């Protein structure tokens, strides 16, 4: 496979992942972190870091809006639930072992 085709496929898969996450706001970031060790904020950080590498002028907040499909504060107010004590304990335990 040539590099352009690979890049196009990777971009399509990324767009589909972002779309899927936008369609499922009930999936909380802490749940993603516990199961997959990344969340929407991680994707936004990776996106903004990649933009910085090529001077694309996309900062973290802009990347979060792209990933969340709306300003982060709006998504947080509308969809984010308080993490349970069990989720926080599992998250902290996971972080200590890494």
At a glance:
The chain is an all-alpha fold. It is built from six helices and no strands. It has one domain: SMc04008-like (SMc04008-like fold, Orthogonal Bundle).
How would you describe what is shown here?
There is one protein chain. The chain is mostly helical and 98 residues long. It has a single domain, classed as SMc04008-like (SMc04008-like fold, Orthogonal Bundle), CATH 1.10.3340.10. 73% of the residues lie in helices and 0% in strands. The chain contains 6 helices and no strands. The protein has helices at 3-23, 29-36, 40-53, 60-68, 72-79, 85-96. The longest helix has 21 residues, at 3-23. The N and C termini lie far apart (35 Å).
Calculate Rg over CA atoms: 15 Å
Q: Terminal Cα separation, in Å?
A: 35 Å
CATH fold descriptor: SMc04008-like fold
Count of the domains = 1
The H-level CATH homologous superfamily, spelled out, is: SMc04008-like
Indicate the low-confidence ranges by residue numbers. none
Q: What would you call the structural class? A: mainly alpha
Output the number of helix runs.
6
Would you spell out the secondary-structure blueprint of this structure?
Blueprint: H1 3-23, H2 29-36, H3 40-53, H4 60-68, H5 72-79, H6 85-96
């Amino acid at each position: 496979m040539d590099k352009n085709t690979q890049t196009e496929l990777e971009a399509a898969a990324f767009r589909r992942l972002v779309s899927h996450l936008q369609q499922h706001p009930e999936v909380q970031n802490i749940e993603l972190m516990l199961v997959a060790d990344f969340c929407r904020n991680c994707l936004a950080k990776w996106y903004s870091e990649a933009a910085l590498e090529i001077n694309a002028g996309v900062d973290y907040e802009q990347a979060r809006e792209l990933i969340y499909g709306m300003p982060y504060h709006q998504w947080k107010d509308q969809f984010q639930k308080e993490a349970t004590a069990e989720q926080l304990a599992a998250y902290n335990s996971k972080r200590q072992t890494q």
